[in-house]
Design goal:
This protein has 228 residues and is α+β, with helices and mostly antiparallel strands. It contains six helices and eight strands, in the order E-H-E-E-H-H-E-E-H-E-E-H-H-E. This is ABM domain-containing protein.
């Protein structure tokens, strides 16, 4: 029987607002960081994603680590990371400040027992951000975790479904989801009985919801699948 792998200790979701002419340069710098972290056992995932619709100069990074100590002592002192920051300091890359959200994983999974046979760049990634009404995040968490268990049991081509509680506030929950394709997401996941029940149950608890579809530009989510 398939087992859920332990959720990561630390998750970071970052939104990068590059100027259009600087996007390629910034992604190139981040690629060297991802290649470095791919070799480190303390980093499980580091993936830069471009939105499938809208402004392609705004991209999102998904990162998971064993601890914040590792991020501080190793990740942020590595040569690729320092090179990135040096180039940032002398260049005008960004149209807005980077948004960094530190999160605690509350349930779900980043990968299954068997890696996907599809390259990461061909998979479909969906990130949904919910803001609960004040005092309702715990209630929402119970609803989403029940849904998460159903997804794990019934959707083999849902490769990741990680439930993240923002450490920056007391209302936000982020779902990091990874599918074999956008068609699978739309025709199987989004139409399931569990999804219908989930929608019905979360509506009274949520003040805001934002969801975006992505493709992986570079990096990795499951190291067994290699680098994108």
């Amino acid at each position: 029987m398939a087992t859920k792998h332990p959720v990561p200790q630390l998750c970071i979701v970052a939104r990068i607002f590059t100027k259009p002419e600087a996007t390629k340069t910034v992604l190139g710098l981040h690629k060297t960081v991802a290649e470095y972290e791919f070799k480190q056992k303390e980093c499980d995932s580091l993936c830069s994603m471009l939105p499938l619709e809208g402004d392609k100069s705004i991209y999102t990074i998904f990162e998971t680590y064993d601890s914040m100590d590792y991020v501080t002592a190793v990740h942020r002192t590595s040569e690729p990371y320092k090179k990135w920051k040096e180039e940032e300091a002398k260049s005008d890359f960004y149209s807005n400040p980077v948004e960094i959200i530190k999160c605690n994983a509350k349930g779900g999974w980043v990968w299954r027992d068997e890696p996907s046979k599809l390259p990461l760049g061909e998979q479909f990634i969906w990130i949904a951000t919910f803001k609960a009404h004040p005092g309702k995040r715990d209630d929402f968490m119970k609803v989403v975790l029940r849904h998460t268990d159903n997804v794990y049991r019934t959707e083999d081509e849902t490769y990741s479904f990680l439930v993240l509680e923002s450490a920056e506030d007391d209302v936000s929950v982020i779902l990091f989801e990874r599918y074999s394709s956008e068609a699978y997401f739309k025709n199987v996941h989004a139409t399931s009985e569990s999804m219908q029940e989930f929608r019905k149950n979360f509506q009274p608890l949520i003040a805001e919801r934002l969801a975006v579809g992505f493709s992986a530009a570079l990096g990795f989510v499951d190291k067994r699948e290699g680098l994108a």
